[in-house]
Specification:
Strand content of chain B: 15-25%
CATH superfamily of the largest domain in chain A: Thiamin diphosphate (ThDP)-binding fold, Pyr/PP domains
CATH architecture of chain B: 3-Layer(aba) Sandwich
Oligomer: heterodimer
Structural class of chain B: alpha/beta
Largest sheet of chain B: 6 strands, mixed
CATH topology of the largest domain in chain A: Rossmann fold
Number of strands of chain A: 22
CATH class of chain B: Alpha Beta
Chain lengths: ~575, ~190
């Protein structure tokens, strides 16, 4: 039977069909739906881990314990998990261990465009790359087999367009795979120098063995057509090449590390012009050039963003495809905090107070954009607190009196907590605002350790921020309603003056989560309105100007009344 | 190798995902190969959202590029204009006439273009639909999606029952009847 599945759903299905028993992840676009869909299979234990490092460590334990296991994350998540990942390559696996990593060329929802294939190579871990949903499912199953055959973790490398495109998938039944025996083996599972040196020999041999076998693997295959142009490609670029150059000969790589050099050598001899088409880094190109095989690649293509059939046609054939002229100079439409978002009032206050704000990763990063413009930095998950601490240590206590760190509930549990420990231990005075909206918002509302529900929505222990941060050693702790701007401002002012670290928990559920929240839309009373435009300073998408007057778009307004609270003339009220 | 490419444009939260799911289901009903490319994550928070649906004998790329769209279904005026360069010259646009101000307009840095209708008409054949008014007459703004699908169906053609079947499979069970009514309203506009 064929089903129309998202690439990520197909990975979940593949894991299920392959007899996978344990799945862990931290949510991150574009990888999130893998584990969301796995959570629907009762045969597989699944969890949202607090971060990718823990997710991989639980995955390693499950694999050592003999179960087929999948761990999923976005590309930058693998940085968090890099510590266990690099050494896992040495220990190898017991039950098959697949690490699904979704890269984001074009940065639809990310802070950089790093290329996971390079990390696979530096850790000597094989990397498989599917090009559509059908392959996403099949390659997941192949990844489990390769993992067990070669005693190695395997990366299933996805990109946004593969993860978030739907395609037809032939689905099959699950094949149960019995737990492998667990045997204590310190030469394999304890990586002290003496053992690790021996395992490094194994890793090098494993690389060579897979490289030798790769040329005969059916996932690496050649289609000869016109031999004037020969393309080496993988992943989604393969689909673009098929559309752009339907007559070209193609070597499609399913395994991009280790590379099948025998097959590549043979292909290169059979075509006149050899071109590598790959998004992001010249990964395949550099490797085959190092083997002395001449080819074209990044002299034709950019390192940045996503490719397309048109881009390939233009680069190789010089052909343009546009038929209709586009419109120039249109207003951009960046994403914005939703109407009713509890973060909006917080950033309005921080903007008004003119503070330096170190930010973090989540919906609330949108507080950086105009007109809220209340964020100075955003680097990686959990970074806000450390960066605020560093600023204080560089610029002194007075600077800290004008600086706050903002971080979401899930991001705080991810890696923010370590930053707070540093502040307490090393005598910082950082003021931290935990923006607790009771969910992991930006990735689509996943539960987390602080909202009392597990991945399946079942009750779980709810970690309480107040006693948690008090136990770390923060003495000035207060919880305020995110909608209560006066209390929030007072709490921030007090915390900035407080000698020692402070934590303010600005708490209110995400408005999208709280279905019962929606209230009648608000309305502007034009008799009272002085046109001061203070209400426009909160950056609510539903407050607009029509015919020179401020109006509220009733199709967007959810009735949160933040605008009414900031209006100095009391000109905004309920429209009932 | 004939492929029909349908572009769906709008603002995050307007329901592009439901619309693309209905079109994907339609392709399955018709026994075609299909690929749908969606936007998740940050771009959904009120930003520009572009979704691609491509159906035919064999579909390789999931995305629609310049000069590639046979049809565009747009939920918002400015977003239709933004993606007009993806249209084929003989392509057709079905456009909900709603205007949603983007943040640069709200904060007064830029103006919302005033001549979108004329610009679009001068470039590609465009059908303007006031789906929001029709939806209001049905008692819920959320029916905009199926009204627009109905209008698109009347322009794309094909077996109407298959279209309705696809709608049925994708909307919540309790609102199937209302959605079919909305589809019919759109179809007959």
């Amino acid at each position: 039977m064929k089903k129309l599945l998202l690439g990520n759903q197909a990975v979940a299905r593949g894991a299920w069909e392959a007899g996978c028993k344990v799945a862990t992840a931290y949510p991150g676009t574009p990888s999130t739906e893998i584990t969301e869909n796995i959570a629907k299979y009762y045969e597989i234990y699944s969890e949202w881990s607090p971060n990718e490092k823990v997710a991989l460590e639980v995955g390693i334990g499950a694999s050592y314990g003999g179960a087929r296991t999948i761990v999923s994350m976005k590309h930058v998540g693998l940085n968090v998990a890099a510590d266990p990942f690099f050494t896992l390559s040495y220990t190898g696996v017991n039950g098959g261990l697949v690490i699904a990593v979704a890269d984001d060329p074009g940065m639809h929802s990310s802070q950089n465009e790093q290329d996971t294939r390079l990390i696979g190579r530096s850790a000597h871990v094989p990397v498989l790359e599917p090009s559509d949903s059908m392959e996403a499912k099949e390659f997941t199953k192949i990844a489990f087999d390769l993992s067990e055959k070669y005693d190695t973790p395997v990366i299933l490398r996805l990109t946004t367009r593969v993860s978030h495109s739907r395609g037809l998938v032939e689905v099959e039944d699950r094949k149960e795979v019995p737990l492998k025996d667990y045997t204590k083996d310190i030469s394999k599972h304890i990586m002290m120098p003496g053992m690790a040196r021996k395992r490094h020999i194994f890793v090098e041999q494993r690389d060579k063995l897979i490289e030798k076998d790769a040329s005969a693997m059916p996932i690496n295959n050649v289609t000869y057509k016109d031999k004037k142009i020969g393309i080496i490609t993988s992943g989604l670029s393969y689909q673009y090449v098929k559309e752009a150059l339907p007559d070209a000969s193609i070597l499609k790589l399913g395994l991009v590390y280790p590379l099948p050099y025998d097959l590549i050598e043979e292909f290169s001899q059979n075509v006149e012009r050899l071109i590598v088409v790959e998004e992001l880094e010249p990964f395949i190109e550099d490797a085959i050039k190092a083997k002395g095989i001449a080819c074209e690649g990044k002299e034709l293509f950019t390192l940045q963003g996503e490719y397309s059939a048109n881009l390939i046609r233009k680069a190789i054939l010089g052909e343009d495809a546009a038929e209709v002229e586009g419109a120039e100079g249109l207003p951009m439409r960046p994403p914005a905090l939703c109407p009713g978002c509890p973060h909006r009032g917080t950033f309005h206050v921080l903007n008004k107070m003119g503070l330096t704000v170190t930010g973090d990763i989540g919906c609330y990063t949108l507080g950086a954009l105009a007109p809220l413009s209340a964020m100075d930095t955003c680097v990686c998950m959990g970074s806000s607190i450390g960066i605020a601490m560093g600023m204080e240590k560089a610029r002194g206590r007075d600077f800290a009196k004008r600086t706050v760190a903002v971080i979401g509930d899930s991001t705080f549990m991810h890696t923010g907590i370590n930053g707070l420990i540093d502040v307490v231990y090393n005598k910082g005075n950082t003021t931290v605002l935990i923006l607790d909206n009771r969910t992991t918002g930006m990735t689509g509302h996943q539960n987390n350790p602080t909202n009392g529900k597990d991945i399946k929505g079942e009750p779980a222990h709810e970690i309480d921020f107040e006693p948690l941060v008090r136990a770390i050693g923060v003495n000035n702790v207060v919880t305020v309603d995110s909608y209560d701007l006066k209390k929030l401002e007072a709490a921030v002012s007090e915390a900035l003056e407080f000698d020692g670290p402070s934590v303010i928990i600005a708490k209110r559920p995400c408005v999208l989560l709280d279905k019962a929240f929606r209230k009648p839309p608000l309305k502007v009373n034009h008799d009272k309105c002085t046109d001061c435009r203070e209400c426009m300073s909160i950056g609510c998408p539903s407050i607009i100007v029509r015919n020179g007057k401020v109006e509220i778009d009733t199709t967007l307004c959810v009735g949160c009344a933040l605008c009414a609270r900031v209006c100095p003339s009391k000109a905004i009220g309920r429209s009932e | 190798m004939s492929i029909t490419s349908v572009l769906i444009t709008g603002v995050g939260g307007q329901g592009s995902l439901l619309t693309s799911r209905i079109l994907g289901t339609l392709a399955l009903e018709l026994g075609m190969d299909v690929k749908v490319s969606e936007v998740h994550g940050m771009a959904q928070r009120g930003g520009s959202v572009v979704t691609y649906v491509r159906m035919g004998d064999e579909v390789a790329s999931p995305i629609i590029e310049e000069g590639g769209a046979d049809y565009m279904l747009s939920f918002e005026m400015l977003e239709a204009l933004r993606s007009v360069n993806l249209m084929k010259k003989n392509g057709k646009i079905v456009l909900n006439v709603q205007e949603i101000d983007p943040m640069p307009v709200i904060i007064g840095v830029q103006e919302y273009p005033k001549d979108i209708k004329q610009q679009l008409k001068s470039k590609v054949e465009t059908y303007f639909v006031d789906a929001l008014s029709v939806a209001d007459s049905l008692g819920d703004a959320r029916y905009v999606n199926t009204i627009m699908i109905g209008k698109l169906a009347s322009i794309m053609g094909g077996d109407k029952e298959k279209w309705i079947n696809s709608v049925k499979q994708c909307v919540p069970e309790k609102s199937v009847e209302k959605n079919i009514l909305a589809f019919e309203k759109g179809y007959n506009l």
